[in-house]
User: Fold this.
Amino acid sequence: MEFTEEQIVAGIRNRKNDVFIYLEKKIRRPIIAHVTLNRGTDEDADDCYNDSVIVLIRMVDKRDFKNTCKISTLLFDIAKKIWLQQLDRRGPAAKYKIRHNEDTIVQQDDNELDQPLFEKIFDECWKKLTRECRLILKSYMKGMSGEEMADLFDYKTSTIRKKKCNCHSTLKEMVHNHPDYRRIKRDEDI
Assistant:
């Protein structure tokens, strides 16, 4: 059964079980994939999904809630932010990997080995972005909403979202194509 966005909002406000089941079927799997692909366990992913639903319910319950995007998109964005916050809280201790050093297996902290290099790669790529892209991404990282960013940059909300996605994709592509990044990834595969 499909629901319109208005029906989903009303269903969340009225705690209709079929709406929550619909959302779970539609968005739970992508959230779990995102968390597990970004250093999370299945349990982390379940927690992240559940926490995201709670945040969504609180948002929708507010009288001034305005539905400016698909609820499934909003739920996924909430989950991404929750997972990033979780990774930040875990810090370097959660980022151990096993690396091979000739015949011995040594457990070393990624941050000790690669963090300065990753920062260098990111800084180089960041500086190559246009000024507008840097400002848009900085605003997004500060937690500004699409509407706030649209007002700040004098664009429509849909345009600012598109620009943010394009800037993010450009930055990601530059990082992935950076020679040092490619070398690190090649070494990890050995």
The longest strand covers residues 96-101. Residues 92-113 have pLDDT under 50 and may be disordered. The chain has nine helices and two strands. The CA atoms of residues 23 and 66 lie 18 Å apart.
